[in-house]
Task: inverse folding
């Protein structure tokens, strides 16, 4: 099918210094968790995006020197020859698919406390980067950089640029954003210097200029040089010579790089969850940049709509459509637009499980794309599945795991029947996506139902509550049970383990609310699940006019939401909605009128009034249908998957459903699982760059 001519502008080539991008789709630098310790995993992950049509494919932050060590968070490096070899695996794979390869040269300054290398952190003026989350905290404080340190920093970037070119990179980034060292020089909060690098903005911008010049000179202009800069705080600060300090900085730097990559300052706004932030949210901060420079500008905004992308180009906001999360959710997004298959785009839902992977110190995960990170290790491709299925499969349960299992089994060629007791497919997401801010999560259901509806070998059976005899009568070769988990009304002890059930009037679980219950107010929500659902339920009930108190065992609302950038936005939402917040508390009793609480460490008791209690804490796996079928099942013909097997977030359910479907019917010897390993330093000749 030919592409819609409205989208032709997206496929125009763009000149970036000495390089040319084949279209306007630019996978900007983003964390993947795949460091130099897993070079083949990283290469396959990035190369899949190049295959999918992204014209530029970038690394994440890549340290230029051991004084910028982000451990225990995944940290790529470009320190020596072993690192050159590791990155060359990625650039060769990206080039083979016709894309340019970009590398984000990075020094964290005071934000990198060098836990492994034990270098003192560096800072323009010794101002520490004060983290509010324990994973980022450190008792180390930075060293004030002297002139020699500044010269070293410039030299480290130049040396890293030489290594980057030898590794095959086409575009080299100077990173002046997100609180890292060049950004710290730009900001008066961090930069109290009185020399040529401090004071007025003209001096504070000097280091960034010199880094750009050093990188360009190190490669003799053969590579393009990009500037990645955060503008959120600068845009909010007045300037005596320009509309804002952001305008002033871009005015000084407008001719320095070959490309401007513009972004926000903080992870919670730069990589904001869809729960609180719409597509294109960066525009009010970055929209001025193209009015000041003739260099191409790339930016992000969780773009999934081709119409929005075209609007960004036509209105002169951006020259290149940056993608991080959308490129993970669907590496083939550009190709699908180009081939007129917009309806096949697997749209990012903005849940931010991808960024949680970095916080967890592991390879990237994606709710929409269960193959992310598994391209090399398991040989999974996001668009291709071997057509090796033979026989009939009954999938019971139409939630995230069941839908993904049915889709993948259908693509393998099995005859698939998907049954669910509800009238509408979606499982847990049928209700959860109706909660405040979670409507885009229904894309998990919409994409899969849209694909299944066009598959002649898949039949859908809603409103089908199957008993064991119904399954036996179906007579398929395989049965997959994906009937989900159950929330239980169990309290939590001081050791944060689930305690016994609570017998009291008007006690509810999320399952009760999903079935239509509306608790009487005032209502307390006791959340020891500590991800999104407890806070979303509190917002939902406040929106229905209930006075709500949110109680949690953790030190903040939606504590695990720090991992997905939701936590600060949850607190802001609670303040707007008037939701009372009680942290580090457990519920010890409830009689329908009074809720008894205890401080989780000291045991100090308090009481508050409440007519209803919603407990969001413990989910029980299992399936009575699976248990009834198991004694008579042939080995390998009965499979339990998704939340019914092991409750988790939607990402875990989708992954389990996909893996079950990929491996169904295969012998253990046929299942691919490879282990990657880093390159050891060794003297292996590499191609020399001509002088």
Result:
């Amino acid at each position: 099918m030919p592409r819609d001519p409205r989208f032709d502008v997206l496929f125009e080539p763009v000149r970036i210094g000495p390089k040319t991008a084949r279209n306007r789709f630019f996978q900007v630098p983003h964390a993947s968790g795949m460091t130099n310790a897993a070079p083949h995993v990283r290469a396959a992950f990035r190369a899949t995006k190049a295959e999918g049509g992204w014209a530029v494919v970038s690394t994440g932050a890549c340290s230029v020197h051991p004084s910028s060590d982000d451990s225990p968070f995944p940290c790529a490096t470009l320190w020596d020859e072993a690192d050159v070899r590791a990155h060359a695996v990625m650039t060769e794979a990206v080039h083979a698919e016709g894309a340019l390869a970009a590398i984000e040269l990075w020094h964290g300054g005071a934000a990198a406390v060098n836990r492994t290398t034990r270098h003192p952190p560096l800072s323009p003026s010794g101002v520490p980067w004060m983290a509010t989350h324990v994973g980022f905290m450190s008792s180390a404080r930075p060293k004030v950089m002297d002139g020699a340190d500044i010269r070293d920093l410039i030299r480290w970037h130049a040396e890293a640029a030489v290594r980057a070119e030898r590794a095959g990179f086409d575009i080299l980034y100077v990173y002046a954003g997100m609180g890292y060292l060049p950004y710290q020089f730009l900001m008066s909060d961090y930069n109290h210097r009185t020399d040529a690098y401090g004071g007025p903005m003209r001096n504070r911008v000097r280091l960034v200029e010199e880094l750009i010049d050093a990188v360009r000179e190190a490669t003799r202009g053969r590579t393009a040089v990009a500037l990645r800069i955060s503008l959120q705080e600068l845009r909010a600060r007045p300037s005596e010579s320009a509309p804002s300090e952001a305008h002033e900085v871009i005015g000084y730097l407008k001719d320095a790089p070959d490309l401007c990559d513009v972004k926000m300052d903080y992870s919670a706004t730069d990589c904001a969850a869809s729960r609180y932030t719409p597509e294109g949210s960066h525009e009010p901060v970055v929209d001025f940049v193209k009015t000041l420079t003739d260099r191409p500008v790339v930016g992000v905004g969780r773009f999934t709509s081709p119409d929005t992308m075209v609007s960004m180009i036509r209105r002169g906001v951006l020259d290149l459509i940056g993608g991080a999360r959308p490129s993970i959710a669907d590496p083939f997004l550009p190709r699908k637009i180009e081939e007129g298959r917009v309806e096949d785009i697997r749209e990012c839902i903005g849940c931010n499980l991808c960024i949680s992977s970095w916080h967890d110190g592991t390879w990237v995960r994606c709710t929409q794309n269960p193959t992310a990170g598994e391209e090399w290790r398991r040989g999974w491709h996001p668009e291709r599945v071997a057509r090796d299925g033979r026989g009939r499969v009954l999938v019971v349960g139409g939630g995230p795991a069941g839908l993904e299992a049915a889709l993948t089994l259908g693509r393998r060629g099995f005859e698939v029947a998907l049954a669910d007791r509800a009238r509408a497919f979606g499982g847990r997401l049928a209700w959860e996506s109706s909660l405040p801010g979670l409507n885009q999560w229904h894309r998990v259901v919409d994409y899969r139902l849209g694909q299944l509806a066009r598959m002649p070998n898949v039949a859908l059976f809603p409103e089908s509550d199957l008993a064991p005899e119904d399954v036996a009568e179906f007579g398929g070769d395989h049965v997959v049970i994906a009937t989900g988990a159950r929330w239980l009304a169990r309290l939590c002890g001081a050791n944060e383990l689930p305690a016994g059930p609570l017998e009291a009037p008007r006690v509810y679980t999320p399952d009760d609310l999903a079935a239509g219950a509306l608790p009487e107010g005032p209502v307390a929500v006791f959340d020891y699940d500590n991800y999104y659902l407890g806070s979303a339920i509190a917002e939902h009930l406040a929106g229905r006019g209930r006075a709500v108190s949110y109680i949690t065992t953790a030190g903040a609302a939606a504590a695990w939401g720090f991992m997905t950038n939701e936590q600060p936005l949850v607190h802001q939402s609670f303040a707007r909605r008037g939701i009372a917040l009680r942290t580090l508390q457990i519920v010890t009793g409830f009689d329908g009128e009074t809720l008894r609480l205890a401080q989780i460490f000291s045991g100090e008791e308090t009481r508050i009034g409440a007519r209803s209690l919603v407990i969001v804490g413990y989910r029980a796996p299992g399936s009575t249908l699976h248990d009834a079928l198991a004694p008579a099942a042939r080995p390998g013909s009965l499979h339990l998957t998704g939340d019914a097997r092991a409750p988790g977030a939607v990402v875990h359910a989708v992954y389990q459903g996909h893996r079950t479907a990929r491996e169904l019917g295969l012998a253990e010897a046929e299942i691919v699982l490879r282990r990657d390993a880093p390159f050891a330093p060794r003297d292996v000749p590499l191609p020399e760059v001509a002088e």
Remarks:
- The first helix runs from residue 39 to 51.
- The CA atoms of residues 349 and 440 lie 5 Å apart.
